[in-house]
Amino acid sequence: MTTSVPDPSQKHQRREHGLMLALVSPALLVILALIVLPVGWLAWQSIYHDGFTLENYRRVFTEDVYWRSFALTFEISLAVTGIALLLGYPVAYLANSVPKGWSILILSLVVLPFWTSVLVRAYAWLALLQRTGVINQFLRYLDVISEPLALVHNTFGTVVATVHILLPFMVLPLYATMQKIPNDLMQAGASLGASPSLTFMRVFLPLSLPGVLAGCTMVFVLCLGFYITPELLGGGRTVMVSMLVSRNVELYNQFGAASAVAVVLLLGVLAIFFVVSRFISLDRVLGQK
Amino acid sequence: MRASPARIALYVVSALVLVYLILPVLIIAPISFSSARFLTFPPPSFSLRWYQQYFSNPAWMQATRVTLTVALLTVVIATPLGVAAAYAINQSKLRIMRLIHMALLLPLVVPIIITAVGIFFVYAKVGLVATMPGLVLANVMLGLPYVVISVLAGLQSFDPAQEMVARSLGMNRLRSFFAVTLPQIKSSVVAGGIFAFISAMDETIVALFISGGQYQPLTKRMFTALRDEIDPTIAAISTLMTAASFMLVLLASTRQKRSG
């Protein structure tokens, strides 16, 4: 056995590593204590209550209330993602194809609502959509309708407000991807005789798909966990998964059931991120806000 | 430019979508300046009564103090923690740093309702429910990713050789960081701090579960009020909050631009 003389550069490197770990540790500690531990606690609580039990999961997977809520959440998230893509794509496309000043204006209008509290925007939608709200008053003034329309306290109102809140998460990754598509490719397509719509369908659209995937992932995942909008605009009938969690805690003191629902939701979200990360870098999905 | 029908359709659709995005943000201010008890649009006459009601109500004022205190303390704690972490993540070649970087972004990945319920259970065990430290700690955790992301972006455009030069000239590491590195990433640090402030000011869901008694932030009281009835006082508060957010974002973005 040879006794190794401590290499000064190695010693230096070890000190460097120690210093870097020391610098990162306070932030890491906060994360561990306030999100890793609480989520771990939830997971534990979902399977342990005076002994191991899968009772909570049995209920989540067999009882009607839970199934309906999961199905509804899934449907709403799909609808919201689809609508956000339909509305967001043209805006991102326009922002990408106009001179810089205009695109800055368009993007500022897109991110402006981003920085308004979700609560404030839920209030705004209530003011706009309720029976005596701005839109109903306007339509009656125009004599288009005689009875106020039920625009809120239902799934419709929830979807309208949720799309509004999540739309920036669609437009920004779309725009970022479109920016990287070289203009020459369009010109090449045109010079080879393709019509603008053909070049769009065959060249531009396929190249923008990574942005579509990033945007859809973010919108879908965020929508799965939405709480404030369905709670305030859903009128008590639109019970999304997040509301199931909160009601089990606040109203029924069913901590085990709440935890099991939360764990199923979290696993769903992580699975989506995992699958998507095989296709595109997650930085692209997360780095928006 | 030749305006084909497709192009015109693109303009119209985009304009409608932008109106949809902006309208709700703009609708609140006129409601808040209306004299009517119930929402009428256009407002019958100009009045400041909802602002008066907000500023003269001790419960709203107490909630405002809680929100501002929490947001300020969040910035004061989350910013140095986030800067130190971003610096280490940027410098260190340790493999575990990638994992730590991902861990620091967890608050953005985990649905907030899950985080909220989890924190509630943990706080219930250690007696932090309905306390100021509990509220601040939770918001520090939620604000950290914004600081880390912003500062990392700033550090990536900074040449670390400059700090090495300062150190080779005899400055110790801490001094060289404060004298050389920090001034150059200052704007991303400020932007990260501002985002952490806005995040704490707007945070609602965690507060719904863990705050109570005299330590309820504005958003929790607003949420409860909105569930019961639509009180135009909330329009006044919303207008003030939105104005505050916009000014802060403007401040953050001009700072970011100046750093180039």
What do you see in this structure?
The complex is a heterodimer of chains A (289) and B (260). Chain A is mainly alpha-helical. Chain A has 13 helices and no strands. Chain A is 76% helix and 0% strand. In chain A, helix 1 (8-47) packs across helix 12 (255-277), helix 7 packs across helix 9 and helix 11 packs antiparallel against helix 12 (255-277). The longest helix of chain A has 40 residues, at 8-47. The model of chain A has no long low-confidence stretch (mean pLDDT 87). With 260 residues, chain B is mainly alpha-helical. Chain B has helices spanning 5-32, 49-56, 58-91, 96-104, 106-109, 112-126, 132-156, 161-168, 173-202, 205-210, 218-228, 233-259. Chain B starts with a helix and ends with a helix. Chains A and B meet through helix 1, helix 3, helix 4, helix 5 and helix 6 of A and helix 1, helix 3, helix 4, helix 5 and helix 6 of B.
Any descriptors?
heterodimer; A: 289 residues; mainly alpha; 13 helices; 76% helix; 0% strand; globular; B: 260 residues; 12 helices; 79% helix
Question: What's the arrangement of secondary structure elements?
Answer:
The complex is a heterodimer of chains A (289) and B (260).
Chain A: H1 8-47, H2 55-62, H3 64-97, H4 100-111, H5 118-129, H6 134-141, H7 155-179, H8 183-191, H9 196-224, H10 228-233, H11 241-250, H12 255-277, H13 282-286
Helix pairs in contact in A: 1-12, 2-3, 2-12, 3-4, 3-7, 3-9, 5-7, 7-9, 8-9, 9-12, 11-12
Chain B: H1 5-32, H2 49-56, H3 58-91, H4 96-104, H5 106-109, H6 112-126, H7 132-156, H8 161-168, H9 173-202, H10 205-210, H11 218-228, H12 233-259
Helix pairs in contact in B: 1-12, 2-12, 3-4, 3-7, 3-9, 7-9, 8-9, 9-12
